[in-house]
Structure formats: structure tokens, C-alpha cells
């Protein structure tokens, strides 16, 4: 860069010195924005457009046909299976969101306010990211020998005489799904909340104490309001991840529970692409509505 | 509102860890309704002292009394003090009314009443027109007024200010300084103000407390401190003084003679602690020195000009001489012009014995 910048004046030094710098052509800003625009267009807008188009196509057991039918939507929205699956998905969203918010907030709170040196903060934060060194699937599978019918936890409980027979609900149940999701997604809540908490000026907390606030009042009136942007960003991560999840649900519930993502995955495996696309569009709309709701409550741009 | 409290510090000590002493057994009485400035270089313990009075720092040993109450171990909110923080520490997520009403909200005052009282307080500070703004939308001076309003809404008996003017530009500093003084007179509350600016302390304080290394070097009225600095540290820190030091070589009815290590000797007035052979220090005001040969030996010397600065109205001439370093003279412009001095030239200086002030030996 600098080489080019230095070379340029030397090249024109023979010519009469230009009076002022040439104005950039009016389309220059668009040119500068083009690389990102191209990437987003090719990898985000185009696939979504394809899904929307396919969702109106017709299909049978062997083939899909270009057409314009609203049958896919009528079928999916008119079926009670869709609605109960949706309800189940939303139940997972609500439970996992609440637990990750609770866990994430207090982990972030501990890191930000109780760990004194920033070196130690960074170190502990890196420890939090260690599970990410392995893939989602492996982290999920590692629960099996622990929670299984003859797994570590059950044999320990039985041998200690705490329970008479192995607990059945530990694995291949909704409990297992929620547990695995909380395990997988908590860090997405910790990180943004931690970032907002460390930026809170400590003198604000002293000022609140000076004004007579007790610990809970400081938390409720100062820390949580100032952590809102982080909570919102973390919530967006967790909610979108849980809404789109199908592998955790399939694996940890042992096929006994369903989610929108799983339904779409099943339809794809049956080659019912248009039906899957219609469900995907419905799910996308749901995600967008939730994001809009979060952004309505917390103005992230203003706080950042 | 005029129920100011006397603040009494009794051998107050603050240690961080085992050997880092921030405040070393200080005792001080600040009378009710006094404007007190804690003055000193950074790290002298002035902020720790203020924070202990406020209750934001635990006391290692000693006691703090506010009026008739020993508050040493009380939490900040039960001390009837209020603190204004250095960076104001306004809540960025609340508008001005809610910022000022914060302590009332913590006490459980109903919303309508606390907002009305907060607005009243903002009116007193002349910033009620911005009541619905957030702190980030205000200038530094306006933010300070909000911080003051927030600190005063609890009707404290003492207001504690931690470098309140340091974030302001010089022009605003002077204006807000006057406002602070006016407010203190109006409310009659005890103010304790931490600062590292001599000028600020002199302009505001009824009682200046100069601290160094966790101890009080001198506490007194600003004029007293300026005219009669107790120690060499005070004389140097307040500026405007030259410090002469040496060993006492002779004592007589008029005073004593001290000899600097390199031969120069000076005459100083008598003081009870002077003894032959002991080190002694004395201060001479920079603006009481005249250029010219001294009539009496020991009340002047000849040095070489090292630096000349124009101060507006007078010249600041810095000289070096054997045994005397950094000796500064404020010479009247006219007196200077009679015989302008170039850098490196020798200049004779003289002063009167009455303008020499003997300093106490530094305790540590």
C-alpha cells in the first residue's frame, strides 16, 4: 500500500502539478461496498431466494416440478403436527434461553466483577472456550456414557443407594435435549454479557452504593440495565441456534421429540424439498419476528 | 439543609496489604460548615482519606466521627455524607431526573414525588431544561451540575468531592470553582474537596490540608499556609518559595547563620528548634527578592542566570549558585529592564531578614 502511495507522486512529477486531488467518481462508494455485497448476495440472498422459489413448487415421490402452488404452505400450516412441533420448538427455546441467560449472566458476572486481574479474566475466559476445541457432535455424544441407563451417573446413584433403579429420564428425553443445548450454547450468552459487564465503570457501582442502594438494588438498577445490549445479543445467538437445531433434538431425545429443524431435515431426507422449503420459510419468518421483538426492547446500536 | 457536621479524624490509618501505607495515622478536625481542601501530589493519600470518610474504603485503624456519630464502620449510605466522583459517575442509562432521583428511588420514595424533588434540585442547579436528556448528551460543566444535584438531594451533612474540577477545561474550571464556593456558602454544608491544584485549594478553601506520603504536612488557612509554610515540602509544593538549606553554624540574639554544603551561608531568624551543627531550612518568597547587592552579609548571594521567562508583569528568573539550586526570582519588569540579564550572566540578589521564614525539620 505505502509503496504504491509513494510511487504515485514520483510518476506524475514530470507533469504540471495537479491543482487539487481528483474527485472520486460518484459510483466509488458502491464499488467499495461491492465485495461484501457480492458475498452476501451469493451466499445469503441467493440461497434464501432459491428456498422461497422452491417452496412454491410441486412435487411427488420421485421429482419436483417448477410451478406456482400454495399447497406446500396450506399443508404445513394446516396440519396440527406442524403446530405442535412448533410449540415444542418454542418450549425448547424458552427453557434453554432462560437457563443459558441465568448461567451465562452469572458466569459473566463472576468473570467481570469477582476476578480482579484482567490476566486472570482472559485466562478463565479461554478456559470457557476449551469445549469448542471439539465438535458439537462429539460434545453431545460424550453425554451418552455419562447419562445412559448403565452410565456413570446412574451406576453411581444406584451404588450409593440414592435411587433404587437407574433413572430413565436422563438420556433420550427432553431433559437430555435441554441439558445438551444448555451445554452447547451457554458460552454464546457468556461472551456478549461479559463484554458489556467489563465496560461498566466501577465508580457507577460506588455511586449507587453511596446513594444507598443494596446489592440487589445495584444489580437491578445499574448492572442489568447496562448489560442489556449483551443480554440481547446473547439471546439472539441462543434463540436462533435453538430454533434451527435438529441434530441435538434428534440425538439426545432418541427420536422421541421433534423440532421445526428436525421436521425440515426429515422432509429433506424424504426428498420433499418444496415442503421442506415451505417449512424453512415459515421458520425464517419466526426467527425474524423474534429478532425484531428483541431489537424493539433493546436498542443495540445505541448502546454499542 | 444547614445541618452541617464536624468531621473528626482520629489517627486514621489505611494500609493496602502489609507494608503499603496509604494514610499514616492522620488526625484532623474539620469544623462544621468549613470548605476543606485536601491537597497533595498524586499518591499522597488524599483520595484514600476522602474515600474512607465516604465509606468506600475500609479503615485499617483509627476512627472517623461525623458530628456526634462514630461512622468508622457504617456503610456509605448511613453516614449522611454524599460523594461526588471524579468522573461524575452519572448513570448513562438514566435521564437527568432519574439520575438525581436515584437515591430517593433506593429509599422507596414514590415515583411522582421523587421526580418532583429531583426536578426541584435540577432547577436549583439551573439545568432543569435538560431534564429529559441522558448524561452523554451534556457538556462537562453540565454533567458536573447533575452530579452535584445527585449528591445534594439526600441533604447530606458533608459533601465529599473527589477532584471535581479536573475533567474541565481551564476556563470552565474557574467558573465551576466559583459556583462550588457559592453553593457551599448557600448550603452551609461541610465540603471536603480533594485536589492536586494549589491554585484551586487557595481559591476555595477555608482550611487547606497539605498531605505527603500519607501524612499531614500542614493544615491551616490558605494565607497562613502561603505566608508561613511549615516544612520544606509545603514551601516547595505551594511554589512561590525558594528553600535555603544548610547546617547551623552560629546562633545569636537576632537569629542564626546556616551554611550550605558548598560555602554559601545565609542569615535566618531565630527559631526554638535551631541548634549549632544541626541541619536547618528556611524559605524566601520569590516575589520579595530584589536584584542588587545585599547590604548585610547572609541576606543575598550571586548566582548565574539559567532561565528567563516572561510571566506578564514580571520576569521569572531562575538562577544557580554553588550550594543553591533552582533559585527563582520574580523580578518586576521595570527592575529587570534596568539591567537585562542574559543566560549565564552573574546576578546579585538580596532580601530582608523579615522575609526569611524558618521551616520545621521534615518529620520523615
UniProtKB/TrEMBL annotation, chain A:
Keyword Cell membrane recorded: yes
Location in the cell: Cell membrane
Transmembrane spans: 30-57, 92-111, 123-144, 175-198, 218-243, 276-298
Major place of residence: membrane
Listed SUPFAM superfamilies: MetI-like
Ranges where the ABC transmembrane type-1 domain occurs: 86-296
Membrane topology designation: Multi-pass membrane protein
Keywords: Cell membrane, Membrane, Transmembrane, Transmembrane helix, Transport
Family classification: Belongs to the binding-protein-dependent transport system permease family. CysTW subfamily.
Protein name as catalogued: ABC transporter permease
Record organism: Chelatococcus sambhunathii
UniProtKB/TrEMBL annotation, chain B:
One Pfam short name: ABC_tran
PROSITE patterns, per the entry: ABC_TRANSPORTER_1, ABC_TRANSPORTER_2
Family annotation (Gene3D superfamilies): 2.40.50.100, P-loop containing nucleotide triphosphate hydrolases
Key word Cytoplasm present: no
Molecular function as annotated in GO: ATP binding
Keywords: ATP-binding, Nucleotide-binding, Transport
Segments forming domain ABC transporter: 7-238
InterPro entries noted in UniProt: AAA+_ATPase (IPR003593), ABC_SmlMolc_Importer (IPR050093), ABC_transporter-like_ATP-bd (IPR003439), ABC_transporter-like_CS (IPR017871), Mo/tungstate-bd_C_term_dom (IPR008995), P-loop_NTPase (IPR027417), Transp-assoc_OB_typ2 (IPR013611)
Family of this protein: Belongs to the ABC transporter superfamily.
Listed PANTHER family: SPERMIDINE/PUTRESCINE IMPORT ATP-BINDING PROTEIN POTA (PTHR42781), SPERMIDINE_PUTRESCINE IMPORT ATP-BINDING PROTEIN POTA (PTHR42781:SF4)
Record protein name field: ABC transporter ATP-binding protein
Lineage of source species: Bacteria, Pseudomonadati, Pseudomonadota, Alphaproteobacteria, Hyphomicrobiales
